[in-house]
Amino acid sequence: MRTPRILSIILAGGSGGRLGSLTDHRAKPAMPVAGSYNLIDIALSNLHNSGFGDVWIVEQYQPKSLNDQLVSGRPWDLDRTNGGLRVLPPFQGGEGEGFAEGNADALHRQADYIREFDPDLVLVLSADHLYSLDYRDVVETHREAGADLTVVTNRIRNNPSQHGVVEVEGGRVTGFEYKPEEPKTDLVAAEVFLYDAAVLLETMDALAAEHGQLEDYGDQLVPWLVEHRTVAEHRLEGYWRDMGTPASYHEAHMDLLEGRGLNFDDPRWPILSASPRRLPGFVGEQAEVRTSLLAPGSRVDGTLIRSVVGPGTVIEAGAQVDSCVLLDNVMVPSGARLRNLVVDSGVEVPADAVIDGAGGEAGIGVLDRSGDVERS
Fold it and tell me: Which of 62, 101, 104, 150 is close enough to 194 for a disulfide, judged by CB 3.0 to 4.6 Å?
């Protein structure tokens, strides 16, 4: 059987509003994760490890913050003469011009480029999640089912109403509701979709003609295909985490520290990154460090418990940090006490500040660059 021609598209243009001030100055896929990586590294590493070499990234919001991480695709072997990485920003002049109003609209605006590439299958990914997946297995599921669309799914412990909720029977998707108030199952779409290219293009054109414009995939595109076409399920049984809110972002890092999160250091399935080379994290003589991750370029002279420290971040002697995620170039001076926080890049914590983010509904706060604390 002929190997299908596969085009992979990462939709990375959303503003990430649910993350609040953390995405005021960066695209969500450029968010730091695990100290030494960025969210975009997850999707790109899964593609690299799966052997998929034609990758397009659709940008819109804060593109420079994302382009700084991509470096022409070199860490993922995508800096090629033929194929490799292609970045698609918004444009003017021609079909598909302007700014997208949702992820399905963003995909439809690339329809002419997709036709020109002429793939058999289109793999569409979000860059907002932590997971490990061999996309070749998804292709196999798709071919065996004779599917027009294959949806990767995962069971989650809480808040399925924040996702596309899926009903399945015998490996086929029989129902799909996008962010329903009363979800019928705890099975959700993991934001990985494999489409038959011809069906995708035909359906997008027809729905855009009928509705005027597509919006998010869950509004028209996926529900229509579930009702009228063959949609298969591919179950992701391992770890999957949506990083769309400060609470989920913080919890994913606590999962990592407790050994139940994504394995970033699996030699059989490495997470690759364009992170700069820096001196390993430094722990001073008077420091107390427990159950924490220190990125290269960081320095700890104070007390650090159950936390993740980004590059260039300094925790001075006499400072205390507990259950926090400190992004890059944060300064925590002597006397400051931080707990249950995500601290944004470049924040200089006030001397003798005592801040606990646990006052919000989710028990987590964000200390932003203005010095304010957002509690979710």
Answer: 150
